[in-house]
Amino acid sequence: MSEIVPSPLNAAQQQVLDQLGSTDRPYFEPSLRAQLRHELDQAFEPMLAAITSDDPLFVSKRAIGMVHSCEQLYVADRTEEFSWSVPIIRGMVSHKAVELLVGYRGNPTPLDLVEAAIARLENDMYGPGEFLRGLSEGERAELISMANDRVATFMETFPPLERQWRPVTESKVRAEFGNGLIQLSGKIDLQLGFARGNQAGKVTIDLKTGRSHRTHIDDLRFYALIDTLKTGTPPRLLVSYYLEQGTPHTELVTEELLWSSARRTAEAVGRIVELNTGEITAERTPGGSCTFCPLRDECEPGIVYLQERSQAG
C-alpha cells in the first residue's frame, strides 16, 4: 500500500498555522492562580448571603455579556422560556461535527461529519434529541445544509488537526466560589497545545460566524480566567476564528488581561445578584444587542437606536 502524503496547505490554512504556531511561550508566576481566586473570593463574599444552596448562581459568558451590554436584555433572556430552533441547533451540530473530526478515522467529508453529529444528538434524551427527531424532511435538509456550510468552511480554511497538537473540543471549564453558591462556567470550542509547568502553551479558540464584535474578545478572556483558575497556567493565545472570513483574530494572554477579566466578571456577578433579587431596576442601554433582543419591538430606546442605525446605512 502506498504511503498517504499529506495535502499541502492553502493560503488561508498556512496563515492560521503561522499565527497560531508561534514559538513564544511565556511563563506565569505560580502564585497567579491563588491571587486571582483570592481576589474573586473577596469580591463575591458580600453576595453570598443573597444566594441559597438550593438555587446556586451559574454564570456564563452569555450572562456576563448581556449584563454589560444591556441589563434589561439579561432580565428578558432570563425570564423568556427557551425553545429549540433550526438556527440554534445549527451551531450545536456544527460544533459536534468539528468534535467528531478530531477522532474520525479515514477522510470524512463535511456531510459525513454533520450527519454523524445529528445522529448522536438525536439520541440525547435531555438535550435537542426530541426536537431533532420531530423535524420535517425540509427542516432537516435545511439544518444539514447550514451546518455543512460551516463545517466545510472550517475544513477548508483551518489546517488539519494534528494529534501532536493535542486538540480538545467542547472542553468544559468551571470555577466555584462560596462552597458552590457561585459557579463560573463555560465550554470552549477548541483548544490546541498544552502547558509545560508554568510555561503557557495552550491556544483557546472560539469558532464564530458573522462579523467580529467586541464581546467576542471578552468571552475569550473569561474562558482564559476560568482555565487559569482550573489549571494554574493560562493559555498563551486567544483566538476568535471567523468562518466566513477564514481568518483568526488573536490576542496574547497577559497577567493584566486576566486581572481585567476578573474585575469585569466580579462587576457583572454583582449586578446579576442585584437584578435577580430585585435590589436594582434593570437599565436599558441601546446597542448592537438590540438586533436580537426579544424586547426590540417595545423598547423605545432600542427602537430609536435601530432606526438611526438603519438610516446611517
Largest sheet report: 6 strands, mixed
Shape assignment:
globular
Number of domains: 2
Class per helix and strand makeup: alpha/beta
Give the rounded overall mean pLDDT: 90
Helices, by number, come to 11
Low-confidence stretches: 1-5
How much β-strand is present in the residues?
Answer: 5-15%
Number of strands: 6
N-to-C span: 59 Å
Rg to the nearest angstrom?
21 Å
Share of residues in helices: 40-55%
Q: H/E order of the elements?
A: HHEHHHHHHEEEHEEHH
Name a few traits of the molecule.
alpha/beta; 313 residues; 11 helices; six-stranded mixed beta sheet; single chain; disordered N terminus
Spell out the blueprint of helices and strands:
Elements: H1 11-20, H2 32-44, E1 57-59, H3 61-69, H4 71-79, H5 86-103, H6 110-122, H7 129-133, H8 137-157, E2 168-177, E3 182-192, E4 203-208, H9 214-231, E5 237-242, E6 247-252, H10 255-277, H11 300-312
Parallel strand pairs: 1-3, 4-5
Antiparallel strand pairs: 2-3, 3-4, 5-6
Helix pairs in contact: 2-9, 2-10, 3-4, 3-10, 5-6, 5-8, 6-8, 9-10
How would you characterize this protein structure?
By secondary structure, the chain is α/β, with parallel strands linked by helices. It has two domains: 11-70 and 163-277, no CATH class; 86-157, no CATH class. The protein is 49% helix and 13% strand. It has helices spanning 11-20, 32-44, 61-69, 71-79, 86-103, 110-122, 129-133, 137-157, 214-231, 255-277, 300-312; strands spanning 57-59, 168-177, 182-192, 203-208, 237-242, 247-252. Strands 1, 2, 3, 4, 5 and 6 form a six-stranded mixed β-sheet that branches. α9 links the parallel β4 and β5 (237-242).
